[in-house]
Amino acid sequence: MNTKLIVRYAVRETMGLAVMGAALFVSAGRIDWWPGWAALAVIAAWTAATAVVILRTNPTLLAERLGPRKGAKSWDTVLLSLVGLLQLARYISAGLDQRYGWTGEFPTALQIAALVVCALGYALVVWATASNAFFSQVVRIQGERGHTVVSGGPYRYVRHPGYLGAIMYELTISLLLASWWAFAVSGLSAVLLMVRTVLEDRTLLAELPGYADYARQVRFRLFPGVW
């Protein structure tokens, strides 16, 4: 087990959480805001669970995620940058909404339901990560790692369960934060993730041996019985 990689991963993820927390609480102008802390907690739990899963099931995936992005598609770099900016904008807009009351009254029951669905979305991503030894953060064929088709776990039901989980938490985390403005931003991010799903699926069909056969067996990309 490479201790340096673990430290690098921990530092990177901690910095990400710190940026998110700063975006939320500085823009909100307060720290006594339970939805903000709930959002941080669920993301921290997902980060920790992902690390445990990777280290226990496929430690080489950690090096893949932290290494140079050789062979990454140019369109993927653009999409990831846009999604990252939208995520930052979501937290800032949610904090400003909390400060200035743009949304107004928001049902607590809806916030709690959103927290549950958000956690389920993150859990689905963790399940996909545990099932897929090639669950990289960029779209590329990992030939040097013996990239093959994955059809177990949630991949039995849809071809891109990680994106389904991501869309679930993208939309519901804004409802947890009680902000329709942030929800609108999250909607844009969800659309970009759907675009990425289509482009990644095309890449795998064209470049990964066996994926076309898998796609004929598992017909739906994201939503079982729908698409």
Comma- or semicolon-separated keywords:
227 residues, 8 helices, Isoprenylcysteine carboxylmethyltransferase family protein, transmembrane helix, protein C-terminal S-isoprenylcysteine carboxyl O-methyltransferase activity, membrane
The amount of beta strand, in percent, is: under 5%
Helix proportion of residues, in percent?
over 70%
**Radius of gyration in whole Å, from Cα?**
18 Å
Shape: globular
Mean pLDDT: 94
CATH class: Mainly Alpha
Counting DSSP E segments of at least 2 residues, the number of strands comes to 0
Tell me the distance between the termini: 40 Å
**Helix/strand order:** HHHHHHHH
CATH topology description: Four Helix Bundle (Hemerythrin (Met), subunit A)
Summarize the main sheet.
none
Number of domains: 1
CATH architecture: Up-down Bundle
- Helical run tally: 8
Low-confidence stretches: none
Q: Structural class of the secondary structure composition?
A: mainly alpha
Summarize the helices and strands and which ones pair or pack.
Blueprint: H1 3-28, H2 34-57, H3 60-66, H4 74-100, H5 108-131, H6 161-176, H7 180-207, H8 211-217
Helix pairs in contact: 1-2, 1-4, 2-5, 4-7, 5-6, 6-7
Organism: Levilinea saccharolytica
GO molecular function: protein C-terminal S-isoprenylcysteine carboxyl O-methyltransferase activity
Subcellular location: Membrane
